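Backbone geometry tokens:
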Amino acid sequence: MSVTSALPKVRALRAAGRTGQYLALLCYLIFLAFPLLWLLSTSFKSPQELGSIDPTWFPQHPSLDNYRAAFDAQPLLNSALNSLLVAVSASAISVSIAVPAAYVMVRYKSRVSQAGTVWILVSQMFPFVLVIIPLFLVLKNLHMIDSLFGLIIVYVVWNLPFSLWMLQGYVKSVPLSLEEAAAMDGAGRLRTLVSVVLPMLMPGLVATLMFSFVTAWNEFFFALVLLKSPENQTMSVILTHFIGAEGAADLGPLAAASVLATIPSLLFFALLQRRLVDGMLSGAVKG
């Protein structure tokens, strides 16, 4: 078989392989998007459609009644503002602490940095139930029960180990020669961290910020135990109020409230996605 006659077969195999990759990616996207699309469809259905034994894919008579009922039943706007305040504050503080801490743990090898690495690994093994009682007692002594500030501190401490773990890998990828060149130009450690290391950590910072924000926004257990007043409760706790004492859910308003609860995370990801891609491309060009 000549090379010329084999080229069409090779091209056909490559095209088939590329088509298979696109189909697999499409199936995966459908798998990920289906719960959100079903939730969105449910939020526009009438009570008669929701109670039907033959569920429909799309609402036959879409309306905003479930959204109106959700806002009338629970203080969704106030709880969303509480969640936004807690999530933004916790993610910003945890990342601000994790950046210099990860830099020190990578660049300065000592017993303290080794102990910090061990703490990161050990802290991820503790379940929520194991720490909630001592945590509750500590916050009670500090008069931080039923306080958004106390919840922010809890989220910062809980997110910090994983944030450190993520950023350590990005700090290790920064060439040490760049820092040495900055030192030869007279830059101190703080100036080197801010002007040289920090711009190259942008993809890691954005990824860590996304993780911290989504974790704090979706967290339920700590918020349920530590927040008592309705005006201080976060979105994840308010959603449970749509479920009755016997487990019967007010499905329409619950779906509507759940859709509203997902919007901030999607917007936050959409806003930071460009910075994440730009940072990755910038790092690739510099490398």
User: Anything to note?
Assistant: The CA atoms of residues 42 and 50 lie 7 Å apart. Residues 3-43 form the longest helix (41 residues). The two ends are 44 Å apart (CA to CA). Residues 279-287 have pLDDT under 50 and may be disordered.
